[in-house]
Amino acid sequence: MIAVLQRVRQASVRVDGEVVGQIEQGLLVLLCAEQGDTNAVADKLLAKMLKLRIFSDDAGKMNHSVQDVGGGLLVVSQFTLAADVSGGNRPSFTQAAKPDEGKRLYEHFVAQARAAHPLVQTGQFAADMQVALVNDGPVTIPMRMRA
Q1: Of 79, 109, 112, 121, which one is the catalytic site residue?
Q2: 47 contacts: CB under 8 Å, gap ≥ 6
């Protein structure tokens, strides 16, 4: 499973011009399920993400997690994170989970996030979404978890 975390001051996602999810301070999570991913992989990624110390303390050091600062999570599905650009000029997405499995894993991840964290917003799986954000830092962290 692949995630790109962006520490944000605010972020929102729109579908058909309507806001479907938004947060203030927190993490924008772009999430991609890959072939072979399991619930256990999603759970491991979420646990790491919630504890990752990428928010600044009073001294300006990255010492706090999203949980420590009471930040939100905005989770947006993005299968293009699985792009393979090694051959030719058109990306291949064969490593991305099939749509049904990708949706199941995305929904599992979101359900687990909601059980573990008080503020979780989402995009809409497989929709054409417009994501707006104010990246804080900027801090952008790529993550990949495997079984």
Answers
A1: 79
A2: none
